[in-house]
């Protein structure tokens, strides 16, 4: 099995029974904030895109690059579709000209022509990607590969049961806006960033240990930030709180925990994977490339500057009455929302900075009141500050997912009182009736689910499944004193009370070993 690195989470897999192109991303994403690094725009995409099969793990724009898919990927390719709850991915592919689809069933192995086998695991909670994320398992002639990209399954046993894996591709770096955009003292940002960076690596080590593949390939990150306004987010300043460590940092950290089987794929690297080993060639030496990372970034910044400026010039739409448009789009969704609106539990404020960089229009999305209105000097738990032009552009293009656009762009600042509230971001990911109804139904089923199985962790008996996204706490749970941490997403719980210390809701059922509880604590 030949694996060609094509940048970020993208790769081309070639076998004797066909080729699969995965997650090709080249064009800037999220308001021209994210670029692939190392740069992959100079690869021979005409050749790379001439494939038998196309797999895109999910609709995040650093995985689903519509312009690139339309121009460079053969429309004769069969699209391998995960079993997602909505038809959005298929609809987007059809709009780009793709006509051949294989609609997979979740965790069901499919044998394609020539003995090529594939299996896709779809994750379908409202917090998995933009309504869905997935991983691809491939087998040919006894060689097995798992492309986990940046999916976070509760465990990898489904793949391990299919046989020993020889190549494991997975995310290790950040893909979020926290804590960089929060209005906090720099010391706090550094501390929170270091915690997140450590959790990212801990989660990665846990997945690697679960699967025990012959070779581990760090992929799906980090992006690079080439706009001058965002340059500080690149991990080139020795900041231990930067959440975007690169592949060379991965190898160094992996070595600290005994990892010796890591393989980095630069764009153009080729790894020949067999049942007995892997031989990899690179366009340039990996160590040499990352030793010159700053120079590479500076060269990219100058070369991509016209692209960024052109994108910025397209964002302003002064003809749009933002308050009026937001009322028309969001208020009907607030009327339909039960779980998300209750979960947010209060007003969310947007401060929109005008073209002059000074004037501000403050608008509130009032979840309890089910309305969008001007800010009325009330206390809010969540506040976002961004350029008015960005929101104008979102309204102009009818964007249904502000997470997969505004928030991932990092072109905003945020402040909050109290704990993280996942429902805020879940709602702004679901600005369409189809998405909202799915999310409401998922939370309805999730909130009413009873998790009766318990496990013992240290001195505590706790429910086996994490109240957040049902991670198996026998694998991801760590107890330190009276606190439980689920390492899958870093959520923490106070065991004596069951209270979640990370977010609103999500109470855990727990009691000390040897103590009986008359009434089980609710899981939400």
From TrEMBL:
The record's annotation in InterPro entries points to: RibonucZ/Hydroxyglut_hydro, Rieske_2Fe-2S, Rieske_2Fe-2S_sf, SCP2_Rv3818
- Domain of life where this protein originates: Bacteria
Q: Which UniProt keywords apply?
A: 2Fe-2S, Iron, Iron-sulfur, Metal-binding
Instruction: Give the signal peptide as a residue range, or say none if absent.
Output: none
Task: Decide whether keyword Oxidoreductase is in the record.
Answer: no
- Iron-sulfur as a keyword of this entry, yes or no, is yes
Q: Which Gene3D superfamilies match?
A: Ribonuclease Z/Hydroxyacylglutathione hydrolase-like, Rieske [2Fe-2S] iron-sulphur domain
Q: Which residues form the Rieske domain?
A: 461-522
Q: What is this protein called?
A: Rieske 2Fe-2S iron-sulfur protein
């Amino acid at each position: 099995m030949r694996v060609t690195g094509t940048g970020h989470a993208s790769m081309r897999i070639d076998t004797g029974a066909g080729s699969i192109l995965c997650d090709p991303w080249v064009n800037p994403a999220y308001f021209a904030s994210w670029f692939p690094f190392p740069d992959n725009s100079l690869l021979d995409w005409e050749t790379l895109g001439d494939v038998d099969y196309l797999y895109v793990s999910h609709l995040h724009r650093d995985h689903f690059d519509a312009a690139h898919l339309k121009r460079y990927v053969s429309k004769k390719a069969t699209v391998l579709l995960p079993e997602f709850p909505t038809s959005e991915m298929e609809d987007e592919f059809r709009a780009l000209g793709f006509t051949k689809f294989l609609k997979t069933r979740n965790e069901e192995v499919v044998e394609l022509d020539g003995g090529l086998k594939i299996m896709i695991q779809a994750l379908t909670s409202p917090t998995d990607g933009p309504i869905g994320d997935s991983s691809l398992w491939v087998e040919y002639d006894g060689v097995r590969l798992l492309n986990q990209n940046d999916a976070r399954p509760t465990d990898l046993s489904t793949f391990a049961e299919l046989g020993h894996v020889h190549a494991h591709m997975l995310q290790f770096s950040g893909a979020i806006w926290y804590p960089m955009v929060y209005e906090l003292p720099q010391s706090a940002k550094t501390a929170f960033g270091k915690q997140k960076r450590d959790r990212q690596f801990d989660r990665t080590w846990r997945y690697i240990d679960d699967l025990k593949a012959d070779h581990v390939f760090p992929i799906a990150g980090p992006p690079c930030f080439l706009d001058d306004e965002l340059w500080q987010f690149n991990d080139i300043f020795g900041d231990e709180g930067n959440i975007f460590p690169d592949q060379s940092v991965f190898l160094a950290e992996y070595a600290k925990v005994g990892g010796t089987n890591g393989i980095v794929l630069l764009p153009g690297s080729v790894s020949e994977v067999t049942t007995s080993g892997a031989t990899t060639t690179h366009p340039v030496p990996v160590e040499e490339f990352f030793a010159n990372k700053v120079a590479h970034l500076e060269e990219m910044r100058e070369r991509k500057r016209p692209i960024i400026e052109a994108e910025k010039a397209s964002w302003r739409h002064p003809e749009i009455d933002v308050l009026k448009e937001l009322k028309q789009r969001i208020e009907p969704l607030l009327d339909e929302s039960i779980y998300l609106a209750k979960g947010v539990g209060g007003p969310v404020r947007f401060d929109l900075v005008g073209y002059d960089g000074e004037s501000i229009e403050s608008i509130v999305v009032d979840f309890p009141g089910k309305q969008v209105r001007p800010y009325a000097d009330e206390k809010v738990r969540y506040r976002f500050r961004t350029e008015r032009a960005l929101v104008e552009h979102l309204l102009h293009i009818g964007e249904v997912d502000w997470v997969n656009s505004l928030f991932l762009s990092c072109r905003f600042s945020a402040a909050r009182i109290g704990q993280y509230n996942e429902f805020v971001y879940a709602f702004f990911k679901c600005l369409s009736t189809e998405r909202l109804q799915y999310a409401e139904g998922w939370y309805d089923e999730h909130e009413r689910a009873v998790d009766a199985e318990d496990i013992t962790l240290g001195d505590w008996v706790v429910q086996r499944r994490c109240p957040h996204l049902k991670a198996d706490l026998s694998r991801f749970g760590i107890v330190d004193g009276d606190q439980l941490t689920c390492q899958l997403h870093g959520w923490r719980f106070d065991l004596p009370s069951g209270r979640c210390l990370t977010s609103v809701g999500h109470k855990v059922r727990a009691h000390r070993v040897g103590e009986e509880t008359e009434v089980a604590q609710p899981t939400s």
